[in-house]
Specification:
alpha+beta; Jelly Rolls; Arc Repressor Mutant, subunit A; 6-stranded antiparallel β-sheet; 4-stranded antiparallel β-sheet; 12 helices; 10 strands; AraC family transcriptional regulator; Tscrpt_reg_HTH_AraC_N
């Protein structure tokens, strides 16, 4: 099995090494599919993960979710079924052996439909799952990734084959070790599904003052149950989650809209620019102006 996995890895990696010349994230002609490459290790960078499935073909990375550290290496997948703020650091990469991988966006409705179709074939889980997981990619799953990447050479087939391949990808995940994990996020009466709804509310209202009772009422949970389940899924409290959403959005505003730090801080819901600057420095490792300048120089 190891030889088969390595053969599939090489079949995906070699064409990407030829086509991916620049460091960073590259969009592709395949909707929802992105490629990434780095020729050197990086410092820890906070970011927001949308629901996604990633596959690492070469290199390794560390991810920090709240206070939980995860390690992610070649031939492993990273599954994120809900939006999450995380901090990531590439730890193994060089110009001769770059960090290379791909990501595919997850569609919640497609996932729910397939869970219904599969019924009891999907394993059950009694505890609230974490909102992120890392696992070894088996040959059947790697084969689907490979066929998706082959569509880059056959763009005329994308519209017909991509929906089928995306469904097969979800099928392999649901019947594999993380099947019960994924299933919990689709069940209307599960704690994981309720927390996913709370996360959507936080996304929509991140500029507004946090009102725990409103979130608990919307999720049909007690406030204590909300705190406990939210921590189980995200490794942080709702307030910490909202803070990271605000700070990441403020950084985006300063980088791409050219706004000053004080203006960006008010835009994302802060009332005190000095508090914003302190919390920004704590998350990104530098004050807003210095961080934005450093980021632009790296582009």
């Amino acid at each position: 099995m190891t030889d088969e996995r390595e053969q599939l890895r090489q079949q995906m990696l070699q064409p990407l090494l030829t086509s991916l010349h620049s460091t960073g994230v590259s969009e592709t002609a395949i909707p929802g599919v992105r490629l990434f490459r780095s020729d050197a290790p990086t410092s820890a960078t906070p970011t927001i993960y949308e629901p996604t499935l990633c596959l690492l073909l070469q290199g390794s990375k560390q991810l920090l979710l709240g206070d939980e550290l995860l390690h992610y290496k070649q031939l492993q997948y990273l599954l994120v079924p809900v939006m999450l703020p995380v901090s990531g650091k590439i730890v193994k990469a060089s110009s001769t052996t770059p960090y290379v991988g791909l990501s595919i966006g997850l569609d919640q409705q497609d996932l729910t439909d397939l869970v219904i179709d599969l019924g009891d074939r999907v394993p059950h889980q009694s505890t609230t799952p974490r909102g992120i997981s890392v696992g070894d990619a088996e040959p059947a799953l790697l084969s689907v990734f490979q066929r998706i990447l082959q569509l880059l050479q056959q763009p005329q087939d994308i519209s017909v084959l991509l929906p089928l391949l995306r469904r097969e990808l979800l099928y392999r995940l649901l019947l594999g070790p993380v099947g019960s994990h994924l299933r919990e996020f689709t069940l209307l009466d599960s704690q994981a599904n309720r927390i996913s709804k709370v996360i959507e509310l936080l996304r929509e209202r991140y500029t507004q003052p946090l009102r725990i009772k409103e979130l608990a009422d919307a999720a049909h949970m007690s406030e204590s149950a909300l705190f406990q389940s939210f921590k189980a899924v995200t490794s942080m409290s709702p307030l910490q989650f909202q803070k990271q959403l605000r700070l990441n959005e403020a950084r985006r505003i300063m980088l791409y809209e050219g706004l000053e730090a004080s203006t960006a801080s008010y835009r994302v819901g802060y009332e005190s620019p000095s508090q914003f600057s302190r919390e920004y420095n704590r998350l990104f490792g530098a004050p807003p102006k210095a961080d934005v300048s450093r980021f632009r120089q790296a582009l």
